[in-house]
Specification:
- The chain is of the alpha+beta class and 258 residues long.
- The chain has one domain: Pseudouridine synthase.
- Helices cover 21% and strands 29% of the residues.
- A hairpin with an 8-residue loop joins strand 3 and strand 4.
- 32% of the residues are buried.
């Protein structure tokens, strides 16, 4: 792995104790090796190991490559298993931020089952099992900007807090598409015109989805942990141009600089 020194490490340290390591993962970095990205040589798993003194770490969950934000590792396999069980039984609360097309309701719940999506995109389209998927959401801010992206004289966008209650693959991206408010920058489930407009007008071609919080009971000490981090600079730059940076800073205080 190139660039494994602390100075070159792209992960921002959020929390570390004898059992856990939480980091901020930038958009564009894979958590671990993928069969469809064999050419990649750098992964969050390896950089997290560098933050752990070169010792193995064990992912508790994963973030999609284009999603940035809070990523949790265990320093021992038995701790990872315990936290994995807690996630399966909905004992871990997750918070995400997203910029979406249009103005969704102020708050609500999306209860819409999803077919499993294979890790390998070459298998997409094969018959799969449909599983329960639930997401709560809250609208934090809206804007109406004077650019006719889809033929209307203005274009509406919203800043959303998303709370997945289940952990299906691409759940948030697919659920926001389901209610016709896709996440900006989503190449698979979004709207191409809006994605291209954001890339051209704001200079940021990324998925505007960020993991900003994990709340759970520590598997060893039994204390409650609330790990938070502001979205990375590319997200904040666009949020600032839309008039939302102050809202974000009031809503979510980082545990550590990113």
């Amino acid at each position: 792995m190139s660039g494994s020194s602390a100075d070159a490490n792209p992960l921002g340290l959020i929390y570390r104790d004898d059992y856990l390591l939480a980091v901020h993962k930038p958009a564009g970095l894979l958590v671990h090796r993928s069969p469809i990205d064999r050419h990649e040589t750098e992964f969050a798993l390896q950089y997290a190991r560098a933050l752990n003194g070169g010792q193995h770490v064990y992912p508790v969950h994963r973030l999609d490559r284009p999603t940035s934000g809070v990523l949790l590792f265990a320093r021992y396999p038995e701790v990872a298993r315990t936290l994995g069980e807690h996630m399966m039984t909905r004992q871990v609360a997750k918070t995400y931020l997203a910029i979406v097309r249009g103005w969704p309701p102020e708050q609500g719940q999306i209860d819409h089952a999803l077919h499993e999506e294979p890790d390998d995109r070459r298998l997409k389209g094969r018959e799969t099992v449909s599983r329960e998927a639930v997401t709560d959401y809250q609208r934090l801010a809206t804007t109406d900007i004077p650019y006719p992206v889809e033929g209307y004289p203005t274009s509406r966008y919203a800043l959303m807090a998303l709370y997945p209650r289940t952990g299906r693959r691409h759940q948030l991206r697919r659920h926001m598409k389901h209610i016709s408010h896709p996440i900006i920058g989503d190449a698979n489930h979004g709207r191409g015109r809006h994605n291209r407009f954001f890339a051209r007008h704001f200079g940021e071609a990324r998925l505007f989805l960020a993991s900003v919080g994990l709340t759970f009971t520590h598997p060893v000490s039994g204390t409650e942990l609330n790990l938070t981090a502001m979205p990375e600079r590319s997200f904040l730059t666009v949020a600032g141009q839309l008039g939302w940076e102050d809202i974000l800073r009031r809503q979510f205080e980082p545990s550590a600089p990113v």
